[in-house]
Amino acid sequence: MAEPQRDQEAGLADFMCFAVYSANLAYSRVYKPVLEELGLTYPQYIAIVALWEQDEQTVKGLSDKLFLEPSTVTPMLKRLEAMGYVTRTRGTEDERMVFVRLTETGRQLRDKARELSKVTYKAAGLNKDEFRILQRGITNLRSNLIAAAGEA
């Protein structure tokens, strides 16, 4: 007798895409009060984290790092600038390039965020090694999917 097709047996919980999607939703629920205390949306927060990692980036470079389109990042950066966290300046050699830099207020936000990030780490229920292994696995998955999408 032939083995039944996999998709006839698979339940929703068997799909990796649903596991990643639903984990992201759960993570967002835990992050919500943390972000509200910082007064930021998640995309704003990760933009600031990317600038903590490397200040003075172009909008294009920041967009690539965040996996977002520049047309999405630009209005977000305008809001962060209005909040006093970043400055945006046009390049002197090429005015099409816009550079983003943290303000002192943006740099100071790091201390508050560091304390609040402990909440999400604890909520994950993983020890340090498990956390790092899972994070590397998800990053590897993302890289593989990006490569596969580029080949498709």
UniProtKB/TrEMBL annotation:
GO terms for cellular component: cytoplasm. Residues 13-143 form the HTH marR-type domain. GO terms for biological process: response to stress. The keyword Transmembrane helix does not apply. GO terms for molecular function: DNA binding; DNA-binding transcription factor activity. Keywords: Cytoplasm, DNA-binding, Transcription, Transcription regulation. SUPFAM superfamilies: Winged helix' DNA-binding domain. It is found in: Cytoplasm. PROSITE patterns: HTH_MARR_2. It comes from the Bacteria. This is MarR family transcriptional regulator. It comes from Devosia insulae DS-56.
